[in-house]
Design a protein that fits this description.
The protein contains nine helices and eight strands. By secondary structure, it is an alpha/beta fold. The protein has an eight-stranded mixed sheet with strand order 1-2-4-3-5-6-7-8, with helices on both faces.
């Protein structure tokens, strides 16, 4: 006789399938993932300012698990949205997932187009990361284990902060202070872009010089984690993640590369939420890269 999954497992799989399909429709579906996320793994400080502008705010997800002697590792996370859309509250499921794994997590807003264009959102991102570096010990994190991470456009932001020293230098910091950086489906080589939302952000067709991560592969770059979907219809995995991995490896930078067959551009980050973790072990791979005490 055929065996059927227990009722709870069947329901969980159904929820996961529905959430996966919903997430393909846009970032608003992250509300579903947030609603399904466990809340007992963290305490939340919302709207912490790292600058004076209304969008220069971040949320702090502090693990409720016992603090390690040296402090938790810290991740500063930037979301995607073609530098046009996004809200830090939409990514509570990322903060919850990492906090449950013992990672103190900062999820930052940054100014978006049309309020700003390149490079203003990088200045915001650098200030948010500098806030993390400066406040790590006070927040209970280990200052020697601070990582910057981003998905899609946020992956671009993270890459530029980790690979192009001028952005952190403007805040009095340097990429060498980072324990590593994590890029998920980031656009690292995308000029000229056919994305109409991104074109005005980068002054298409008059792109600024040195405005892509692929232009930078310093030998002293922080250890790198690059995750991407094998079939990404939004950002070319070959042109961005694979090409950047090869360039950094040639420079002697430690690179962890993970390609996921069952994810899309959107569900790559969606897989942090428990209903979608069956798609790919993205959370487990990122946690392994960050390392444990």
């Amino acid at each position: 006789m055929p065996r059927h999954p227990p009722p709870f497992r069947a329901l969980a799989l159904l929820i996961a399938a529905v959430a996966a399909l919903a997430l393909l429709g846009g970032c608003s579906a992250t509300g579903t993932l947030n609603a399904l996320s466990v809340r007992s793994s963290y305490t939340l400080q919302s709207g912490v300012p790292y600058g004076d502008a209304p969008r220069q705010r971040l949320d702090v997800y502090t693990p409720t698990a016992p603090r390690p002697a040296a402090g938790w590792p810290m991740v500063v996370f930037f979301y995607g949205g073609s530098w046009n859309t996004g809200e830090r509250a939409d990514y509570r499921f990322v903060g919850e997932a990492l906090a449950a794994q013992g990672v103190l997590t900062l999820i930052a807003d940054y100014r978006l187009y049309p309020e700003v264009r390149f490079p203003d959102f990088l200045h915001d991102s650098a200030r948010a990361l500098a806030h993390g570096l400066e406040q790590a010990q006070r927040l209970g994190a280990d200052p020697r284990r601070v990582f910057v991470m981003g998905h899609s456009a946020g992956g671009y932001n993270a890459a530029m902060l980790a690979l192009d020293a001028r952005w952190l230098q403007a805040t009095g910091h340097a990429p060498r202070e980072l324990a590593g950086w994590i890029g998920l489906a980031g656009p690292y080589d995308f000029f000229p872009t056919d994305n109409p939302a991104a074109q005005p952000v980068f002054f298409h067709p008059d792109y600024p010089p040195n405005a892509q991560p692929i232009a930078f592969a310093p030998a002293d770059a922080p250890p790198t984690f690059l995750g991407a979907a094998t079939q990404d219809a939004i950002v070319s995995t070959e042109r961005s993640s694979l090409q950047l991995a090869r360039k950094l490896q040639a420079a002697g930078v430690p690179v962890t590369l993970r390609l996921y067959e069952r994810t899309s551009h959107a569900t790559l980050v969606g897989a942090f939420a428990w209903p979608l973790r069956w798609l790919a072990p993205v959370l487990a791979d990122v946690r392994a890269f960050i390392g444990r005490p």
